[in-house]
Amino acid sequence: MPQLMFYENVVPLNRETHRNLRLERAEGDCSFAAGTGFVPVAGVEFFQAARDYPVLISGKGDDLAPVALLGLSQGRNLFVDPSGRWSYGCHVPAFVRRYPFVLAKGKDDNFTVCIDDQYKGFQGDSGEPLFDADGKETPFLRDTIAFLQSFLTEMERTQAFMKRLRELDLLVARDMQLTDARGKSFLLKGFFVVDDTRLNALDDEVILEFHKAGYWPWIYAHLFSLGNLSRLQDREQVTG
């Protein structure tokens, strides 16, 4: 699964090169995500995401990851309106909120703070500075880095969760055929869901393991979210 999706040109943040860089972003602007049909979500987000989106599993092999499905047509996000704002009241995934920043792993396996230097919000002279006059990180940048680190930690927890689901063979491929009131059909392929029959057959040791790891709420939220497929279909019909 592409991990950088709407990022165009990711470069390491440098306190010298980017000394005068400022970030200006209209409140609520998510226009950069308008062409993204799904985004990764961390397990800790499942309950919030499950109110609005189907939370499915996407990818292959070791690259399987949970995603929030945002649209039924390729390259279309039904939750970003024509003005570039995310639908009011709907959960904005952390993957989207972190943009245009990201932690990228280098050859030494250490993570570096990077930015998409093509983001339009970096092109002007106004907005939040990233560094002060002495080249030190501003409170805004420190808060951003803390958010990136928290997101990375939660995604690592989520990867461990996915690994256990694979090891226990709890995931099944699910092709979904949806047809709206106009007769328009949508075929969703390449996604996986947790199989509740296999889930119910788990032994007590694994059940306790999942309880201690905090996985059960994530699984329940995932299964609950599948009911949002019909809501997504309704949204597709309304927005045309």
TrEMBL record:
Looking up InterPro entries in the UniProt record yields: SapC
Q: Which domain of life is it from?
A: Bacteria
Q: Which Pfam families match?
A: SapC
Q: What is this protein called?
A: SapC family protein
Q: Which organism is it from?
A: Thioalkalivibrio denitrificans
Q: What is the lineage of its organism?
A: Bacteria, Pseudomonadati, Pseudomonadota, Gammaproteobacteria, Chromatiales
